[in-house]
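Re: export button greyed out
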Amino acid sequence: GAGVSQSPRYKVAKRGQDVALRCDPISGHVSLFWYQQALGQGPEFLTYFQNEAQLDKSGLPSDRFFAERPEGSVSTLKIQRTQQEDSAVYLCASSPIMNTEAFFGQGTRLTVV
Amino acid sequence: QQQVKQSPQSLIVQKGGISIINCAYENTAFDYFPWYQQFPGKGPALLIAIRPDVSEKKEGRFTISFNKSAKQFSLHIMDSQPGDSATYFCAASVNTGGFKTIFGAGTRLFVKA
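Workaround output, generated via the alternate export path:
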């Protein structure tokens, strides 16, 4: 596709439910990033992949958050036992290689009720 | 300190006027300072970026002014247009790209026709 694609666009989860958010990066992009954007705030870094390797996960807020990119292309961010404070827009970005411009997807808006 | 402080929180400008958004940072290791534009329901898009070895960068109606000694930088939008109405984020990182980019809290700009 022409850009980074994320699905679903919107997700409503009951507290305690597990969710999985998908990111399709731009074809051929090696680097992939996940960010969390709370309402009215700037995005905050969660994790970084280079191909299938998760090289940094220092921004993941708790062990309930897990990300994978098994074949070095599509990535999934999984949140277990969702809490209300997890409500945010989750943004995925990709770049051709490290240290080049990253392109963001439209995000998935997660609402935990 | 990793924080990037951005002001104002919101800004209303008349069409044709100049919009000015300011940011300050603490970490002297940052060497890449991008500005992102975000429309509702969309991901952030890179607008313009600067490195600390120059004091000003201009691209069309958008100019970044950078003051390394003061650890401050600003975005000037000349001849502001209603289509510029969006949320603007300053950001900083150690390298180009999306790795651990630190975003400001954002400025909501509204340009009155």
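Chain A touches chain B through 28 residues (CB under 8 Å). The button fix ships in the next patch.
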